[in-house]
């Protein structure tokens, strides 16, 4: 159970699904970055984006609500890293703002969903 919700798999979670969309969008965006950033900002952004749904999935298999909450917090941290890196990419002019803004909005959406899920789980524990 996830805060009172009967969930069979992390794949059923909308937050995981949206986080996966964010991975794809991030990879597509970083493909357009300068080649000298291949092992720099591009790689960091890709790792942060992949870490978010990965932590959701890993936490779902830990077997306890406390462990799940801990992994969801890690996912939140990775998502915040990505939000910061998207801002850096804009400031360095690696991508046009109109390319970055929809991805930033997706990251904000994932963050809100993770916060809500974490809060629901914490309340269900009490």
The total count of strands amounts to: 0
Count of DSSP helices?
Answer: 4
Overall shape:
elongated
Task: Tell me the structural class.
Answer: mainly alpha
* Spans where pLDDT lies below 50 across 5 or more residues: none
Radius of gyration: 15 Å
Estimated share of beta-strand residues: under 5%
- Mean of residue pLDDT? 92
Helicity level, as a percent range?
over 70%
Largest beta-sheet characterization: none
What pattern of helices and strands is seen along the backbone?
A: HHHH
> For this entry, what is the oligomeric state of its chains?
single chain
Query: In whole angstroms, how far apart are the ends?
Result: 15 Å
Offer a concise description of the structure.
With 126 residues, the protein is mostly helical.
List keywords for this structure.
about 130 residues; mainly alpha; 4 helices; about 75% helix
Describe the 3D structure:
- It is built from four helices and no strands.
- It has helices spanning 14-30, 41-60, 65-91, 97-125.
- The radius of gyration is 15 Å and the shape is elongated.
């Amino acid at each position: 159970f996830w805060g009172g919700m009967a969930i069979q798999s992390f794949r059923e979670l909308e937050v995981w699904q949206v986080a996966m969309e964010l991975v794809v969008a991030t990879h597509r965006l970083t493909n357009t970055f300068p080649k000298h950033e291949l092992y720099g900002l591009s790689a960091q952004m890709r790792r942060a984006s992949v870490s978010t749904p990965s932590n959701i999935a890993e936490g779902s298999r830990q077997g306890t609500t406390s462990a799940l909450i801990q992994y969801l917090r890690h996912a939140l941290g990775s998502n915040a890293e990505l939000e910061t890196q998207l801002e850096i990419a804009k400031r360095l002019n690696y991508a046009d703002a109109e390319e970055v803004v929809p991805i930033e909005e997706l990251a904000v959406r994932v963050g809100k969903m993770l916060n809500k899920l974490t809060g629901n789980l914490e309340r269900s524990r009490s």
